[in-house]
Design brief:
9 helices; about 15% strand
Length: about 325
């Protein structure tokens, strides 16, 4: 059995519904195409089914895999497994029930490989990204799996204060400035401007906006030094940066268990659509940059796991 599907097929699978959703947004529907609705599980501090993760390591999936597993499947569980993992966990040679095998999702794994002939300036082999796809199944599809251990939530966890901590930890030279009627990150001052809390329609919109501007701030030269593709005009670069911020904010809010269902900047939809239609890998690059920014914002930039690094090959 092949590990998964062709990279091109996976990319098309992701891009087609995003294009359709963005075209709806262009017609006035502001629902974000990269987030989905979920249900409150009755606990005090978190929601279920938000951040797709490896069911064994419990590490969240990154980049394009975050999009694939958070956008489309309609399962309650966040846990996903490969066939080998399912065999080990269940002790069965055929752990996947009839009718579910073909309902697998394909994810992409990136690994940096040494080039056989090309060398860098120090004589070391140049590296290039190699992509492979794998099939994964959700916990809800596999009745033979043992019951999962419950997640442990810190008693003082409050998602609404976590984003404020993230912004504080960015150590912005110009700080976070409240008041006025716009939300933005100002690179020249390394400062974030936000309206007063009372100006937002609801707390989720408020925290999503904070996350969005925080993602912008991670791109500063003294942080991630996020650079756009060569040859892009300024408006294209801005549109790409806004897409990175949209995705990064969605990742951040999902990580904290907060709904983020509206697009922050609909004025860039036409540019996103053009790039997506011209080059489906455009979304993979943006998702990789967004994931890198998300990790930086939540404070994990100093200790990214190898899985995260390899998934960021598109952002290198």
């Amino acid at each position: 059995m092949k590990n998964g599907r062709k990279i091109e097929d996976v990319c098309d699978f992701v891009v087609k519904p995003i294009i359709e959703a963005l075209e709806e947004a262009e017609r006035g529907k502001k629902i974000s195409p990269w987030t989905k609705q979920w249900r409150d599980d009755g606990t005090a501090n978190t929601l279920t089914g938000i951040l797709a993760r490896n069911g064994v390591s419990r590490r969240p999936y990154n980049g394009i895999n975050w999009l694939i597993l958070n956008m489309f499947p309609e399962y309650n569980s966040s846990d996903w497994f490969t066939l080998n993992q399912l065999k080990k966990l269940t002790g069965m040679d055929r752990p996947i029930p009839d009718g579910e095998f073909e309902n697998a999702m394909s994810i992409v794994f990136w690994k940096m490989i040494d080039h056989r002939t090309e060398r860098d300036s120090k004589g070391r082999p140049k590296k290039f990204p190699l992509a492979k796809t794998y099939l994964v199944w959700n916990r809800d599809q596999i009745p033979a799996l043992p019951e999962p251990k419950p997640d442990v939530i810190p008693p003082d966890f409050d998602p609404k204060t976590e984003i404020d901590k993230y912004l504080t930890n960015l150590d912005l030279r110009g700080g976070v400035n409240l008041g006025g009627n716009r939300a933005c990150y100002i690179p020249s001052q390394d400062a974030i401007c936000l309206p007063l809390n009372s100006a937002f329609f609801n707390e989720h919109q408020r925290e999503g906006t904070k996350a969005h501007e925080g993602i912008h701030a991670t791109g500063a030269k003294h942080r991630l030094n996020r650079k756009m593709a060569k040859g892009w005009f300024d408006d294209e670069a801005y549109a790409y940066e806004e897409l990175v911020a949209e995705l990064g904010a969605a990742m951040t809010c999902a990580y904290l268990g907060m709904p983020l269902t509206e697009l922050q900047h609909t004025s860039y939809i036409a540019s996103w659509l053009k790039h997506l239609k011209d080059d489906p890998s455009f979304i993979m690059s943006a998702a990789a940059h967004a994931n890198k920014a998300f990790n930086y914002l939540i404070g994990e930039h100093a200790s990214l796991q190898s899985e995260s690094k390899e998934s960021l090959a598109y952002a290198a």
